[in-house]
Write a structure and sequence with these properties.
single chain, about 575 residues, alpha/beta, 3 domains, 5-stranded mixed β-sheet, two-stranded antiparallel sheet, 28 helices, about 5% strand, elongated
């Protein structure tokens, strides 16, 4: 006996499936479509070798940075390495960019250290998971474009502020100090450093300064006009040395020097006992509702900063290459997945990283395969060379991070502040100071409020009411014409409200030409309605003419078009004057 067709009966699964599809379509969710799928079309051996070479280069660059970022964030170095491996692989495999490299970032140092200091490592893992969920939801609901609405003055302000805080956090190891506890706030760190200056270690300072100086000089030595390149004239040793990243050279050379001379400085081995030579094990954070409630603000901060950093990094990569532009929503979803997964392996927040992404592009990467190779290269290094990490001096890592902080900041913007409007200067400097003295969340919130207030003020000053200029149309006696320019919104309605007092005696009709009014909100509409009532009490007729699409649509939808009465809304100024001429002005 034939089974009944479930799609043919009422209330079966097919109608409900259609309803769900219609509901999802109505939400306009972003499709989950990793760039890797399209990048692999037509993929060949030559592109693979180009991606593999770029991935190996980035993996070497990422090794010291991952450890340094983790230590500066208040966690063990392996947390940074596992983050670079797992998150780096997932962000490349699932992301919306051809060349974006993900992993631990310097921008997160201050945030992560503050969470660990105030809430503990377990709550950091919970906060990272929750932030990953927010990032995924932002991408799913197509909110990637909203990150672009953050003014550049705010981005520069908090970026420079974070760079200062990173540099401050490294003074402890750079000077060889060993306080029992390092506070998370700016003032507390200064006080702690001052209280422990008696522990100053000149050897640690020497190693840190040599590292910093070497990182500045290393790329210049092998430039076309560099001293070494000129002496050896581009021989094979020069080409090989030029490919070695400066941080790796610093770690290998100064680490070997420290072990050989047995220098009295802290190392990864003396402070953390080394790095485990194994795969990361699964860690299950202890979720509690009370803990989640306390982590609301830190979670939003991680999500917001991760979104900003990753999309800014992807835009930089787009400008450096001729590859297809990134998909911001897919990139946010990949960042979300990575940040949900990484904490279960002891990792810290991850995002797109500008330095490693730029290295990836310049090394010849063309697809996300390069980022996946970079993660696998890091995994191989951890499994094979982890015992060597015990000799890495902490002052050397401090020098690396000081170099990162210097390159991270856009310091020229401070020197150019005098060339910009006071609103730009106020927002940039205010965001910078609030980031340094308070925290990033407060800085961005206040910066956005200031940006909105200044924008509203600027837009209100651009709105004006003025007699028409250059019109040859004759205006009858007793008729006043005013042309509206700009946007009539809540901050500009005062100019409309003051209009009755500005009309000359004997005015019997007022024509408002809306031909240059580009937009109007409900407050502006209400101002026009109140103006009509005020003028009517004075026996003055109000006409509107030349309304553009948006103001006219608002008049019609609100019902005020009909309230003005027949003939009181005309298509242009000539029509309005003709209508007045055909009727008694006392109407």
């Amino acid at each position: 006996m034939d089974r009944p067709d479930p799609t043919s009966s009422p209330g079966a699964s097919q109608p409900s499936s259609r309803q769900r599809s219609a509901w999802l379509s109505h939400l306009n969710l972003a499709p989950f479509r990793p760039r890797l799928l399209s990048a692999l079309k037509g993929y060949d051996r030559s592109r693979f070798w180009g991606d593999a070479g770029a991935g190996l280069t980035v993996g070497i660059v990422a090794l010291p940075l991952a450890m340094a970022f983790a230590i500066a964030s208040g966690v063990k170095p392996e947390s940074g390495l596992f983050t670079a491996i797992i998150a780096g692989f997932l962000i490349s495999a699932l992301g919306g960019s051809n060349v974006q490299i993900g992993g631990p970032a310097g921008a997160f140092i201050v945030i992560v250290y503050g969470i660990v200091e105030r809430h503990g490592l377990a709550n950091l893992l919970i906060s990272t998971v929750l932030a990953g969920g927010i990032l995924f939801a932002m991408g799913l609901f197509r909110l990637g474009v909203l990150v672009r609405f953050i003014p550049v003055s705010i981005v520069i302000g908090f970026t420079n502020g974070i760079a200062v805080l990173i540099a401050l956090s490294q003074l402890k190891d750079l000077l060889g100090l060993s306080p029992a506890r390092m506070p998370a706030d700016f003032v507390g760190q200064l006080q702690t450093l001052g209280a422990h200056l008696h522990q100053f270690n000149p050897v640690a300072l020497g190693l840190g300064l040599v590292t910093l100086l070497g990182l500045f000089l290393w790329p210049r030595l092998f430039a076309s006009e560099g001293a070494v390149a000129s002496a050896l004239q581009g021989t094979r040793p020069v080409r090989l040395l030029a490919r070695l990243p400066g941080p790796i050279v610093a770690l290998l050379s100064l680490g070997a020097l420290t072990a050989w001379l047995d220098l009295p400085v802290a190392t990864i081995g003396s402070k953390f006992g080394g790095i485990p030579q194994s795969l990361p094990s699964l860690v299950w954070p202890a979720f509690t509702w009370e803990g989640v409630r306390q982590l609301f603000i830190p979670t939003l901060t991680i999500a917001m900063l991760g979104a900003i950093e990753s999309l800014l990094c992807a835009r930089v990569a787009d400008n450096l290459s001729n590859l297809p532009r990134h998909d911001p929503n897919q990139e946010l979803m990949a960042q979300g997945v990575a940040n949900v997964v990484v904490p279960f392996f002891g990792g810290i927040p991850a995002t797109g990283t500008i330095a490693r992404t730029v290295t990836n592009v310049r090394a010849g990467a063309s697809t996300p395969v390069a980022g996946m190779v970079h993660a696998l290269a890091l995994l191989f290094i951890v499994l094979v060379a982890a015992p060597l990490a015990v000799h890495v001096p902490l002052p050397v890592l401090s020098g690396v991070l000081l170099f990162v902080a210097w390159n991270m900041g856009e310091w020229r913007e401070f020197a150019r502040l005098g060339h910009y409007h006071y609103t730009y200067r106020t927002i940039l400097v205010g965001t910078f100071l609030l980031t340094v003295v308070f925290d990033l969340t407060v800085a961005v919130e206040v910066g956005l409020v200031l940006a909105c207030v200044f924008f509203i003020y600027r837009m209100s000053t651009l709105f004006r009411l003025a007699p028409p200029e250059g019109d040859a149309l004759p205006v009858p006696d007793g008729v006043e014409v005013r042309r509206l320019h700009g946007s009539l919104f809540f901050a500009a309605v005062g100019k409309v409200e003051d209009l009755p007092e500005q009309l000359p005696p004997g005015t019997r009709a007022l024509v408002l030409d809306l031909g240059r009014l580009i937009s109007m909100d409900t407050s502006g509409l209400d101002a026009l309605v109140q103006l009509r009532r005020t003028l009517a009490r004075q026996g003055i007729c109000l006409l509107l003419c030349g309304a553009q699409e948006q103001p006219l649509s608002l008049l019609q939808r609100s019902g005020q078009y009909a309230e003005f009465g027949e003939g009181l809304v005309q298509p242009d100024l000539a029509g309005a004057l003709a209508w007045l001429g055909s009727r008694a002005l006392s109407r």
